[in-house]
Design goal:
By secondary structure, the chain is α+β, with helices and mostly antiparallel strands. Helices cover 31% and strands 29% of the residues. The protein has a seven-stranded antiparallel β-sheet with strand order 1-2-3-7-6-5-4. Keywords: Signal.
Length: 169
Protein backbone atom coordinates (compact mmCIF):
# COMPACT_ATOMS: atom_id res chain seq x y z
CA UNK A 1 0.00 0.00 0.00
CA UNK A 2 2.86 2.36 0.81
CA UNK A 3 4.47 1.42 -2.48
CA UNK A 4 1.20 2.22 -4.32
CA UNK A 5 1.00 5.67 -2.64
CA UNK A 6 4.62 6.33 -3.48
CA UNK A 7 3.94 5.66 -7.16
CA UNK A 8 1.02 8.11 -7.10
CA UNK A 9 3.15 10.81 -5.46
CA UNK A 10 5.97 10.26 -7.95
CA UNK A 11 3.50 10.27 -10.88
CA UNK A 12 1.91 13.51 -9.65
CA UNK A 13 5.32 15.08 -9.14
CA UNK A 14 6.48 14.08 -12.64
CA UNK A 15 3.26 15.36 -14.20
CA UNK A 16 3.65 18.70 -12.40
CA UNK A 17 7.27 19.06 -13.53
CA UNK A 18 6.30 18.20 -17.11
CA UNK A 19 3.48 20.76 -17.16
CA UNK A 20 5.71 23.42 -15.65
CA UNK A 21 8.54 22.89 -18.13
CA UNK A 22 6.29 22.81 -21.20
CA UNK A 23 4.30 25.87 -20.13
CA UNK A 24 7.45 27.94 -19.62
CA UNK A 25 9.22 26.75 -22.78
CA UNK A 26 9.49 29.29 -25.62
CA UNK A 27 7.05 28.61 -28.45
CA UNK A 28 7.93 28.62 -32.10
CA UNK A 29 5.97 31.12 -34.20
CA UNK A 30 2.90 29.69 -35.90
CA UNK A 31 2.32 30.05 -39.61
CA UNK A 32 -0.10 32.97 -39.10
CA UNK A 33 1.89 34.91 -36.49
CA UNK A 34 3.87 36.95 -39.04
CA UNK A 35 0.74 37.85 -41.01
CA UNK A 36 -0.98 38.93 -37.79
CA UNK A 37 1.97 41.11 -36.85
CA UNK A 38 2.07 42.78 -40.29
CA UNK A 39 -1.66 43.45 -40.46
CA UNK A 40 -1.68 44.91 -36.96
CA UNK A 41 1.18 47.24 -37.84
CA UNK A 42 -0.51 48.34 -41.09
CA UNK A 43 -3.47 49.71 -39.15
CA UNK A 44 -1.25 52.34 -37.57
CA UNK A 45 -1.43 55.65 -39.38
CA UNK A 46 -4.69 54.72 -41.12
CA UNK A 47 -7.02 55.94 -38.44
CA UNK A 48 -9.68 58.56 -38.99
CA UNK A 49 -8.70 62.08 -38.01
CA UNK A 50 -10.08 63.20 -34.67
CA UNK A 51 -11.58 66.26 -36.37
CA UNK A 52 -13.50 64.17 -38.93
CA UNK A 53 -17.25 64.64 -38.94
CA UNK A 54 -19.37 61.87 -37.43
CA UNK A 55 -21.03 59.78 -40.16
CA UNK A 56 -24.51 60.22 -38.69
CA UNK A 57 -24.25 63.96 -39.47
CA UNK A 58 -24.21 63.17 -43.19
CA UNK A 59 -27.52 61.31 -43.40
CA UNK A 60 -29.65 64.46 -43.60
CA UNK A 61 -27.81 65.57 -46.75
CA UNK A 62 -28.58 62.45 -48.81
CA UNK A 63 -31.25 62.81 -51.51
CA UNK A 64 -34.72 61.49 -50.82
CA UNK A 65 -35.79 58.35 -52.64
CA UNK A 66 -38.32 58.93 -55.44
CA UNK A 67 -39.54 57.55 -58.78
CA UNK A 68 -39.50 53.93 -57.62
CA UNK A 69 -36.05 54.18 -56.04
CA UNK A 70 -35.39 53.11 -52.47
CA UNK A 71 -32.55 54.53 -50.34
CA UNK A 72 -31.10 52.12 -47.77
CA UNK A 73 -28.35 53.30 -45.42
CA UNK A 74 -25.66 50.63 -45.26
CA UNK A 75 -22.71 52.12 -43.43
CA UNK A 76 -22.12 54.95 -41.01
CA UNK A 77 -18.89 55.61 -39.16
CA UNK A 78 -16.75 58.55 -38.24
CA UNK A 79 -15.91 60.43 -41.42
CA UNK A 80 -18.16 58.38 -43.72
CA UNK A 81 -21.76 57.47 -44.54
CA UNK A 82 -23.10 55.31 -47.38
CA UNK A 83 -26.48 54.35 -48.77
CA UNK A 84 -27.53 51.87 -51.43
CA UNK A 85 -29.89 53.02 -54.11
CA UNK A 86 -32.30 50.24 -55.08
CA UNK A 87 -34.94 49.94 -57.75
CA UNK A 88 -37.19 46.93 -58.04
CA UNK A 89 -35.24 45.22 -55.24
CA UNK A 90 -32.01 45.47 -57.26
CA UNK A 91 -28.90 47.42 -56.18
CA UNK A 92 -28.53 50.19 -58.74
CA UNK A 93 -25.95 52.49 -57.12
CA UNK A 94 -24.04 53.43 -53.99
CA UNK A 95 -24.17 56.99 -52.70
CA UNK A 96 -21.66 58.21 -50.14
CA UNK A 97 -20.27 61.22 -48.31
CA UNK A 98 -16.80 61.14 -46.80
CA UNK A 99 -14.74 63.62 -44.84
CA UNK A 100 -11.41 64.07 -46.64
CA UNK A 101 -9.65 65.32 -43.49
CA UNK A 102 -8.24 61.82 -42.98
CA UNK A 103 -7.42 61.28 -46.67
CA UNK A 104 -6.09 64.50 -48.25
CA UNK A 105 -5.27 62.63 -51.47
CA UNK A 106 -9.01 62.14 -52.02
CA UNK A 107 -9.46 65.92 -52.22
CA UNK A 108 -6.30 66.46 -54.31
CA UNK A 109 -7.81 64.78 -57.38
CA UNK A 110 -10.24 67.69 -57.73
CA UNK A 111 -7.51 70.34 -58.13
CA UNK A 112 -7.40 70.05 -61.94
CA UNK A 113 -11.12 69.47 -62.42
CA UNK A 114 -12.80 71.45 -65.21
CA UNK A 115 -16.21 69.81 -64.75
CA UNK A 116 -18.76 71.03 -62.20
CA UNK A 117 -21.89 69.43 -60.78
CA UNK A 118 -24.17 71.59 -58.66
CA UNK A 119 -21.49 74.30 -58.77
CA UNK A 120 -18.81 72.06 -57.21
CA UNK A 121 -15.74 70.48 -58.85
CA UNK A 122 -16.42 67.01 -60.21
CA UNK A 123 -14.36 64.09 -61.46
CA UNK A 124 -15.16 60.83 -63.19
CA UNK A 125 -13.32 57.85 -61.70
CA UNK A 126 -13.27 55.06 -64.23
CA UNK A 127 -16.56 54.30 -65.97
CA UNK A 128 -18.68 53.74 -62.89
CA UNK A 129 -17.93 56.56 -60.41
CA UNK A 130 -18.62 60.26 -60.25
CA UNK A 131 -17.47 62.37 -57.33
CA UNK A 132 -17.73 66.03 -56.32
CA UNK A 133 -15.89 67.99 -53.67
CA UNK A 134 -18.02 70.13 -51.37
CA UNK A 135 -15.64 71.94 -49.04
CA UNK A 136 -13.78 69.14 -47.29
CA UNK A 137 -16.42 66.54 -48.15
CA UNK A 138 -16.35 64.14 -51.08
CA UNK A 139 -19.78 63.15 -52.35
CA UNK A 140 -19.77 60.10 -54.59
CA UNK A 141 -22.17 58.10 -56.75
CA UNK A 142 -21.06 54.65 -57.86
CA UNK A 143 -23.00 52.65 -60.47
CA UNK A 144 -23.75 49.05 -59.50
CA UNK A 145 -25.84 48.38 -62.60
CA UNK A 146 -25.12 49.35 -66.25
CA UNK A 147 -28.53 51.04 -66.44
CA UNK A 148 -27.33 53.70 -63.95
CA UNK A 149 -25.34 55.98 -66.26
CA UNK A 150 -22.95 58.90 -65.72
CA UNK A 151 -25.83 61.32 -66.28
CA UNK A 152 -27.89 59.46 -63.63
CA UNK A 153 -24.96 59.76 -61.22
CA UNK A 154 -24.70 63.51 -61.89
CA UNK A 155 -28.46 63.94 -61.35
CA UNK A 156 -28.35 62.10 -58.03
CA UNK A 157 -25.30 64.07 -56.90
CA UNK A 158 -27.17 67.30 -57.62
CA UNK A 159 -30.04 66.04 -55.46
CA UNK A 160 -27.84 65.92 -52.35
CA UNK A 161 -28.26 68.96 -50.10
CA UNK A 162 -24.89 70.27 -51.27
CA UNK A 163 -25.26 73.80 -49.90
CA UNK A 164 -26.24 72.42 -46.51
CA UNK A 165 -23.24 70.10 -46.59
CA UNK A 166 -20.96 73.03 -47.50
CA UNK A 167 -22.05 74.80 -44.29
CA UNK A 168 -21.29 71.77 -42.12
CA UNK A 169 -18.17 72.25 -40.03
Amino acid sequence: MILHRGRRVVAALLLSVMLLTTACAPTTPGRFDQAQKESTQQKRGQSVAKTATQGSEFNKFFPKASDGYQRVYTQEKKGFAEAKLKKGGKDIALLSISDTTSTPSAAAKFSNSTKKIGGYPAVEVGKTQTAILVGKYQVKALSRDPSFTASDRADWLENFNLDGLAKLK
